[in-house]
Every structure is written in C-alpha cells, then in structure tokens.
Amino acid sequence: MNWTPERLSSLAGKTYAITGGNSGLGLEAAKILTSKGARVVITSRSEAKAQGAIAEIEENHSGADVGHVLLDLADPESVAAAAAAIIEACPKLDAIINNAGVMQPPLRRTEEGFELQMATNHIGHFRLNAALIEHLELSGGRVVSVSSVAHKFGAIDFDDLMSEKSYDATARYSQSKLANIMYAFELQRRLKARGSSVSAIACHPGYAATNLQSTGVGMEGGSGFFKALYKVTNAVMAQSAERGAYPLVLAAAWDEAKPGAYYGPTKMGQARGPVGESFVAKVAMDEDVAGRLWDVTEELAGQFFAD
Known about the structure:
8 strands, 8-stranded mixed β-sheet
C-alpha cells in the first residue's frame, strides 16, 4: 500500500490524544496531525518536556492547536487524573494513541509491585482506555495501540507475569509488546460484540530511531549495554522517527483504516519499507490467550467496561 500522510484529507475539527507525545514517535505523530489541522493533546511525565515538545510542534506548523496533560502510566492515580484532564480538554476525542512506553530497563517495580514494562506498556494504557471509552463513544473514536516487531518473540507468562521469579529485560519487553497487540485485537472483538461505535486498531513503527532506545521515553537508568548497542544499530539500520510515526497516524486518522487491523512497515522483516497491513505472528492471534490476558488484566487493573 505504501501509505503516507499525503493520503489524509483535512483533519480540521478532529482531536487526538497521544501518550508519550513529548518525544520520538508521539512527537512526530503530533506534528503530522496538527499540520493537517487537528487538535492534539500530548501526555508527558514532565512539564518541561511537554512544553519543549509543544514549542517544537508549533515551530513545525504555525498555529498548531496543541495542549498537554501530565501522565505517569505506572501510577494509577496519575492515570485517573490524566483521563479526567483529557476529557476536559477534549470535548470530542477521535482517537487515543497508546504510544508511551519503556524498553529493556533494569528490573523495577511500581508502587503496586508490578514489573515496570508490563505496568507501563500494557496495564497503564488499559486503565487509561477504560476511563476514556465512554468519551470515545460520543464520536465513534478509535483506540490505537502501538506494538512492535518484538511481539513476534514474546510470550505471555501467566505463571510469572510480573517477573517475581525471574527477569530478562528483553523477554519482558517482548511480552509487553505482545500484550499490546493482543489487547488491541481482543478489545476490537469485545467492542464489536457490544455494538460499540469505537474501534481498536494496532500498529507498529518498524525500526525507527527514537529516544526509546536510549532513555526508555524518559525512564532514567536504562541498561548501558542496550544504549550502546542501539546507538550503533540506529545509525546503520533505523528509519527516521517521522517515518516510524506514519503507521500511528494512519491508524488514528485515515478514513479507510480497518478496525482490528495491524499497520506498519512491510519489508525487511517489518523493520522498514512501505507502510500497510503488516505481519502478525501466530502467537498474537491466539484468542484464548488474549481472553485470559484480558481477564487477568482486569483482576490487576479493574473492570474495563462499566457494565
């Protein structure tokens, strides 16, 4: 398909929220969406970083309509406050882009005792989306989940979901990215069964050079080994963060995006190349595992739907 943002018509009157919009893919997606006339609200853990991102977005497109909300996905109180702030800032919400994440940090636990990657990448977004789902219903909006080619190497370890027995940073990252795509597919099935006007779409950026590989999107103290490795591979193999953001924008804003689809680069092992419907690993299509993951997540994070 070789999708690019040139396929978008005007997005005037549309509103999008992007988690982790202060840098990397989220920032580039915000630039594209605002350049098409949309209002964008970005989230960030840092006020200073949010303001810096807003300045960059406004520099990219004079007159850009952009705001921000503070959000720490690993903190349930922060998630609840951010959801309320997004609803207040966005009377109409056309999509929430679940973009923020951490990658391969040393073992850390949240205040709830959850392993940080699973807590941030999966559970935090689950909670945020649950708090926003009724608001998204008002405009027939979309829930966009950003996964990764790493989902192909993941497994949902129900016997040790929060790494209480053992921890491998790369395996746990892959687990969280598999959870992202399985969540998107399961959410779409449940939305369809409910006759909801909301749709769920998954996407991935391929291999894009962003600060996720060096800072885990603002999470200090990441592995020095991985930082050094990605400094080399980013220079040799990666595409730009702007191109990596194309699938996010497609999933959130393109009229022809399909509910339940998975968009991303389609060449070089899905690392880069033309953007279209991308490869989904067999493990991600296991509906029984996806249903169990949903149930376990609700046990940990609370009920998703109000009824």
